[in-house]
Amino acid sequence: MIKEVTNETKTRMEHTVEDFRKKLVSIRTGRASTGLLDNIHVEYYGSPMPLNQVATVHAVDAALLTVQPFDPSMIGPIEKAIRTSDLGINPSNDGKLIRLPIPPLTEERRKQMVKSIHELAEEHKTAVRNIRRDQNDKLKKALKDKLISEDEEKGGLDQVQKLTDQFIGTIADLGKHKEDEIMKV
After folding, report:
1. Do 141 and 92 belong together in one domain?
2. Of 5, 17, 21, 173, whose Cβ has the fewest other Cβ atoms within 10 Å?
């Protein structure tokens, strides 16, 4: 019972950290990365599709991304989707290829992004704490139903707390690393 709870706790917390990693990738730093466009969806024949499923995205150099649609008629909707995103990038196209020059970040924009990283990290830390609460409730219920002893419950609660501390530390480290990356000029 204890092993099941700790394994489930670890799996759920790993998913939370992985989600945090994916969201951090889409936050732009001072250089071009194809991950910047991961959260952009384009209207394709009436349904929203991820950009990477309707076009090829390349990082040509540190300051330029290119997007080449599979279907040339999609160039307008792709450009519009990029323009309306909150990335602050102004696309230009030549009819076949969309160029995305990545401008250097201003100090104000950097601070804004760091603030959003803190908010994102706090959301994910809260998610980890909610997982801890759920798992602790399972252990307490198992004790109440006499499926485990008090000692087993205490050991299980300790293991869940150790996992919680570990994953919250991981989230904090990832957030700090991304913050350092953004603030580096």
Report:
1. no
2. 173
Whether residue 114 is found in the same domain as residue 87: no
Q: How far apart are CA 143 and CA 125, in angstroms?
A: 27
What count of residues does the chain have? 185
In this structure, what token pair is assigned to residue 80? 């519009």
**Cβ proximity of 71 and 54 under 8 Å:** yes
Residue type, 88: G
Average pLDDT over residues 19-33: 80
Residues 89 and 120 in one domain: no
Contact 43, 77 (CB under 8 A): yes
**Is residue 13 domain-shared with residue 47, that is, in the same domain?**
no
Q: Which amino acid is at 159?
A: Q
Q: What is the pLDDT of residues 39-62, one digit of tens each?
A: 889 988 888 999 889 999 998 887
**Which amino acid belongs to residue 30?**
G
The reply to whether 46 and 110 lie within a common domain is no
| Cα 143 to Cα 151: distance, rounded to the nearest angstrom | 10
Of 113, 138, 137, 127, the residue nearest 168 (C-alpha): 127
Q: What is the pLDDT of residues 162-171, one digit of tens each?
A: 999 999 999 9
